[in-house]
Structures are given as structure tokens and as C-alpha cells.
Amino acid sequence: MEEHRETKLWTVNNTVDNAVENWQGCPQIVDAAQLLRDGEVVAFPTETVYGLGANALSDDAVEKIFLAKGRPADNPLIVHVADEAQLQTVAEAVSDKARRLMEAFWPGPLTLILPKTDRVASLVTAGLNTVGVRMPDHPAALALIRQAGVPVAAPSANRSGRPSPTTAAHVLTDLDGRIAGVLDGGPTGVGVESTVIDVTVEPPIILRPGGVTREQLEAVIGPVELDPAFSAGSAETPRSPGMKYAHYAPEGEMWLVEGEEPRVREKMNGMLAEAKRRGLRTGVLASAETASYWQAHPEADVVLSVGSRAEPGEVAQRLYAVLRQFDERQVQFIVGETFPRSGLGMAVMNRLEKAAGGRILSV
């Protein structure tokens, strides 16, 4: 694929209402869907982050995703479907528990690991005999996939390792000139990627926390486990996207400090002072509750709040945009707070730990 090419930009937000049927005839959707059928890659909005889509049944098309992102080929991709027929194209079987989860959370931010069919492109599954599938809860995404008439493989639409994109502008920052087009549907809602759960094993295993919490899953199907590959030092082969370090990372060196106040604040103070002595431009990733303290701190050059500790949904929605803002403001050293790991906080902390490359200090 050419390194530099014209990247089309279509704007669909605020043009029609949220009924998928009304989006389907949009010229922008039709144009983007034709490019997908032609084997090109197109970025599009979902309710989580922007995805970089290609025909999931074509290795040639899927290869363009890896080339554009600079993504390792041993990292599997999630396939997005718009209806039952597309699901049957990529999934060999659907268990009772999988069906119950679909009924509860589809369309929505939940990816199910299912036995794959032979029609799925080999590059999608990274050599595994399973495939991750989800149905996105965004009218533009569903309309695009239906219009294309093929299941769409789509990781996040960013350069590999960078914070995931929650706006079309983020996509263009990373991929302008490298992909065929970007469908601009406005800012995304959830802000972190889908939860990935393997329902081919018993009990089911969460491979990646995301927009559907463990508590919500267990309310529908009973006990689920957490994959040991969550741990920073795990050397296990990834069975899900986004399980490698570093990932979602800003350009500056990032550390997290966890523990009880005031020891967390004292440690962060010391780290900022040391970074300033090294001549680095410093940043603090703060909660809404502590932002004013850090904004008055003489050794914190940039202070950005990701939201209230009491509102994990707000933190999830703002996280990637804040990480990108540190890059825009040329911050070289970032120290951040940690957040409660319950509910959606599990996904928030998973992304923060990967953004920091596993650099976490307990005090």
C-alpha cells in the first residue's frame, strides 16, 4: 500500500436522525461502503472508539489495516457485524451463553470470542481457531456494515501503540494519507474499547475489560474469570486486541502512583521535582477532585483532568483525548493518579496501565 495517498473525509453527524435505516442511503455511507467492497480500508465511528475497517473475508484487504497501523500481525482483530446473517458468515457456532449475552448487550460494547468459520481471513484471527465478533451500537457503523454487505474487521483507527481515537481528527492525526477514507460521525460515547469475553471456555473468561462490566456480564450468565494476561509482566500469547505493552501510550514517559493519600501526593511531588531537574516538560494526569491542587503546583507544567473519581464513565470517555493532549502540549514526563478498579474502573485502569507501559509505583 502507498505510504501517502488521498484520504477522503465524509461528515455524517447531524445530517440525519439516529435510525439506522435513515443513515443507510446517505451518499457518504454509500461511498465509504463501496471502498470497503473494493478492498480498501475506511475509518468509521462506533460507540466506543473509531475503528479502521476492512472486509473481514479478504486477506488482501485486512493486510492493509496492519500496514496502515504498523500493527504486529500476531495481534487478532475484532469483526463487526450488522445482522444475524453476517454473524453466521464468521462464527461456526453460538452457545447458549453467547446468545444470552448478545440478547442483553448487542448492539453494544461487547465482543464475543466464538469458533470461527473457514471464510474468515486468516490475518483476522492471527492463526487462532476462534474469532472475536461484536455488533456496534452506532447508526453510522451499522449502516456502513449493512451497506458494504460484508462483515468488517476493525481495530482502533490509530497508529499502533498510540492512544485510541475518539474523534475523526484523532484518526487523521495518525492515519491521514495512509487510508482510503474517514467517516466523521462526531465524538464517540463510551471512550474505551469493547469488553472481550471468551465464551468458548467454561467458565467464560474476560480477555479485555471495556464498556460492559464484569458485574453486568455475571448478572446475565453467572461467574466469569479474568485472563491472567492482564498482568503487566505476562508473556502469554494475546488472544484479544490491546493486550500488549505498551499500548494506548502518549509520547512522553508515563508513570502511575497508587496508594493512600498523602503518600501518593508526596511521591508524585518528588517525581515531578526530579523530572524538572532533568529539564523535562512535566504533566499530571489528575482527577477532577485533585486538579486544582496540581494546577497550583510550580513543577507541573501541564495539568489535565480526566474527570471525577465518582464518575468512571466520564473518565473512560475523556481518557484517550487527554493522553493525546499531553502529546499536543509536548509533555515529556507524565505522572498520574490511579482510579478504583470496580465496574468500568477496571477498563480505565487497564488502559492506564498499558499507557504507562506497566510503570506503576505503590506507596
TrEMBL record:
<dbReference type="GO" id="GO:0003725">
    <property type="term" value="F:double-stranded RNA binding"/>
</dbReference>
<feature type="binding site">
    <location>
        <position position="80"/>
    </location>
    <ligand>
        <name>L-threonine</name>
    </ligand>
</feature>
<feature type="binding site">
    <location>
        <position position="164"/>
    </location>
    <ligand>
        <name>ATP</name>
    </ligand>
</feature>
<dbReference type="GO" id="GO:0006450">
    <property type="term" value="P:regulation of translational fidelity"/>
</dbReference>
<comment type="function">
    <text>Required for the formation of a threonylcarbamoyl group on adenosine at position 37 (t(6)A37) in tRNAs that read codons beginning with adenine.</text>
</comment>
<keyword id="KW-0548">Nucleotidyltransferase</keyword>
<feature type="binding site">
    <location>
        <position position="71"/>
    </location>
    <ligand>
        <name>ATP</name>
    </ligand>
</feature>
<keyword id="KW-0067">ATP-binding</keyword>
<keyword id="KW-0963">Cytoplasm</keyword>
<dbReference type="GO" id="GO:0005524">
    <property type="term" value="F:ATP binding"/>
</dbReference>
<feature type="binding site">
    <location>
        <position position="194"/>
    </location>
    <ligand>
        <name>L-threonine</name>
    </ligand>
</feature>
<dbReference type="GO" id="GO:0005737">
    <property type="term" value="C:cytoplasm"/>
</dbReference>
<dbReference type="InterPro" id="IPR050156">
    <property type="entry name" value="TC-AMP_synthase_SUA5"/>
</dbReference>
<feature type="binding site">
    <location>
        <position position="130"/>
    </location>
    <ligand>
        <name>ATP</name>
    </ligand>
</feature>
<dbReference type="Pfam" id="PF01300">
    <property type="entry name" value="Sua5_yciO_yrdC"/>
</dbReference>
<keyword id="KW-0547">Nucleotide-binding</keyword>
<comment type="similarity">
    <text>Belongs to the SUA5 family.</text>
</comment>
<dbReference type="InterPro" id="IPR006070">
    <property type="entry name" value="Sua5-like_dom"/>
</dbReference>
<dbReference type="InterPro" id="IPR038385">
    <property type="entry name" value="Sua5/YwlC_C"/>
</dbReference>
<dbReference type="InterPro" id="IPR017945">
    <property type="entry name" value="DHBP_synth_RibB-like_a/b_dom"/>
</dbReference>
<feature type="binding site">
    <location>
        <position position="248"/>
    </location>
    <ligand>
        <name>ATP</name>
    </ligand>
</feature>
<feature type="binding site">
    <location>
        <position position="75"/>
    </location>
    <ligand>
        <name>ATP</name>
    </ligand>
</feature>
<dbReference type="GO" id="GO:0008033">
    <property type="term" value="P:tRNA processing"/>
</dbReference>
<feature type="binding site">
    <location>
        <position position="134"/>
    </location>
    <ligand>
        <name>L-threonine</name>
    </ligand>
</feature>
<dbReference type="InterPro" id="IPR005145">
    <property type="entry name" value="Sua5_C"/>
</dbReference>
<dbReference type="GO" id="GO:0061710">
    <property type="term" value="F:L-threonylcarbamoyladenylate synthase"/>
</dbReference>
<protein>
    <recommendedName>
        <fullName>Threonylcarbamoyl-AMP synthase</fullName>
        <ecNumber>2.7.7.87</ecNumber>
    </recommendedName>
</protein>
<feature type="binding site">
    <location>
        <position position="208"/>
    </location>
    <ligand>
        <name>ATP</name>
    </ligand>
</feature>
<dbReference type="InterPro" id="IPR010923">
    <property type="entry name" value="T(6)A37_SUA5"/>
</dbReference>
<keyword id="KW-0819">tRNA processing</keyword>
<dbReference type="GO" id="GO:0000049">
    <property type="term" value="F:tRNA binding"/>
</dbReference>
<feature type="binding site">
    <location>
        <position position="48"/>
    </location>
    <ligand>
        <name>L-threonine</name>
    </ligand>
</feature>
<dbReference type="Pfam" id="PF03481">
    <property type="entry name" value="Sua5_C"/>
</dbReference>
<feature type="domain" description="YrdC-like">
    <location>
        <begin position="26"/>
        <end position="212"/>
    </location>
</feature>
<feature type="binding site">
    <location>
        <position position="156"/>
    </location>
    <ligand>
        <name>ATP</name>
    </ligand>
</feature>
<keyword id="KW-0808">Transferase</keyword>
<feature type="binding site">
    <location>
        <position position="154"/>
    </location>
    <ligand>
        <name>L-threonine</name>
    </ligand>
</feature>
